[in-house]
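Blinded run. Sample ID left blank on purpose so nobody reads anything into the name before looking at the predicted structure. Input follows.
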Amino acid sequence: MNNTETPYATILIAGLLLTALSCNITGGKEDEKCNPNTQDCEITDPVNPEPGWFGATAWHPDEEWIAAEHGVVFDTNDDGAPDSVARSGIWLVNATTGEVQDEPLLEWGHFPDWSPDGTQLVVHEGGHIYTLTVLSLDPPRIDTASIRQLTTEGRNFYPDWSPDGEWIAYDRSIEDETGPGGVWRMKQDGEEKEYIFGGAFPHWHPSGEQVIGAIGTSSTSVWKRFKIYTILDGSTKILDATVDADNRYPKYSVDGTQIAFVSAPPPPAPAVVSIWVMGADGNDPQKISPDWSGVFSWRPDGKQIVFLKYNPNEPDEGNGQLWLMDPDGTNVRQLTRFNPESLKK
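Blinded prediction complete.
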């Protein structure tokens, strides 16, 4: 695998939870009628068959650049429907201007996360976790010889690098003869793999002493509560968000005092996703984003949150683009205005 390959078979995650709650669309055309407002749709998480939107993001430690998933799509026959997916993968976005670089950093990969020193990137692709060395951000360049596949068994997603750079937590989505499904961790070189608790969507506390993840109800498609695992003694505790909803992708704030997460009412309520924040003890949950706001990441200094805004029912100019807001939900503004047609050759 190198950075000139485009994995057409595993098209970009665009929205993650948004995807899971949206219609089943293939090649830009609806296979059958469905209504996102009632969630009468096929669940498609984690792979999104509707390319052309931004997805998961990771703010680089220097705060100048944001790594973001995107699938560049073209209407090559001018019939009004996307019919060509090209140069999908991880792109770099200027965190101030919103400008997207002319070439992707990586033409494959999902759910990026930076090593603490900003020199390496971890992604998942095809159910496995990979790391690679980034040689330059501007222009975007990677060391193709450094690409390392860290997992070989199970199906593995959502890698998250520990604050000390020593570990990578990840979500193993299935149980088989090689181990249980749930949240695992491994050394940054792929050694010492260890199951730590049943759950999904792991994220490290800034101290490196805890990992938080979501845990499901009896229906594995709904994640209502969170679990916190303490590394030092191996203990776990349940954290109730006191929000009766489908709550996913918890992420600690930079100072560890808050947890932000993506939330949507469970079926049959309208599938309107948004970003919430609560205290690290689960108290005082508050919605902070506009409706139809999905996957997000914190700025390294904690002063902003970048997120995807995508409404499948009422697309507008900012649909599928990245937006910024302050942690209290104020100062919401559109960051990117990326038009893939500008890259058409």
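Unblinding after everyone has recorded impressions. The chain has one domain: 17-343.
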